[in-house]
Design a protein that fits this description.
The protein has helices at residues 35-44, 62-65, 68-75, 83-88, 149-155, 169-173, 179-186, 194-202, 224-237, 265-268; strands at 5-10, 17-22, 25-29, 55-56, 79-81, 100-102, 107-109, 112-118, 127-133, 136-141, 160-164, 210-215, 244-248, 255-256, 281-282, 291-292. With 295 residues, the chain is of the alpha/beta class. It binds zinc ion (2 copies). Residues 13, 16, 61, 63-64, 143, 216 line the site of one zinc ion.
Length: 295
Amino acid sequence: MSKFQVHVLASGSKGNAIYIQSGGTGLLIDAGISARRIASGLAEIGVKPADLSGILITHEHRDHVAGLPVFCRKYGVPVYAKEATWYGLACRREIEPVCCRILPETVRLGELTVDPFSIPHDAADPVGFVLTNNGAKCTVATDVGFVTETVRAALADADVVILESNHDVNMLKNGPYPRMLQQRILSNRGHLSNADAAWTLAKLPPKPSMDVFLAHLSHENNTPNLAFNTVRDVLDTAGRLPSVRLFVTSQERRVTNCSEGELTDEDQTDFTASDDLVGGYFDRSNAGTRLQPGF
Ligand SMILES: [Zn+2]
Ligand SMILES: [Zn+2]
């Protein structure tokens, strides 16, 4: 089992929250869904909000912080964000002062070392996170306009990667978004396309195994199948597929790399590419065509 158990409670432009556990330490990255939904997502895996060592905030956009005031009021968990992020946070006065911490260059939370790194995005001081524990590494990089050398270095050698795969460029260009919004998404401070995510992953230094979560999929300009297939095909061409377990995150459903007991009969139904893919993962033992549902 991976040294990092990841549960993406929700991911996408309507709200983001990721629970990551390693050893005895668990923390949340972003709180962009309701406090109630975060608490119930944690309860499904036997985690109490009060057990969290902290909440790390990537940036101040609403889809990353919407649940923060209520969650802090109810559970008093410390929240770490860059100083400029705190200033940019519309809801900062609603957050209990005792919970507010300025995110330092590096911080130790329980067994985890947390190293934030800069990402290009249209926010005050947006960051991704590298989490390490005894040589194991987990990297979170969403809302990434483009992959800088800093982002590439943060992703290199990670055992678990949570990487944005926001849109298909053709869907975006031919979709319903007004031209200005299209330009914003495609810009260097916007969001990462499926193809960019795929090639970024394919060019990382080889590792014997890696869990990859494709995250922050656009509802309008992407589909889970398209994200999955684009990344799978590029990894396949690069000969990297056998070492990768590929997960597609969901706005509605928790997706995890952590086995949670027996699958139900319904879960075991084979299915190939379809919209049911949300939450699915690529099974290494099945040579590239079969998908299995998430746990
Ligand atoms: Zn976002
Ligand atoms: Zn954002």
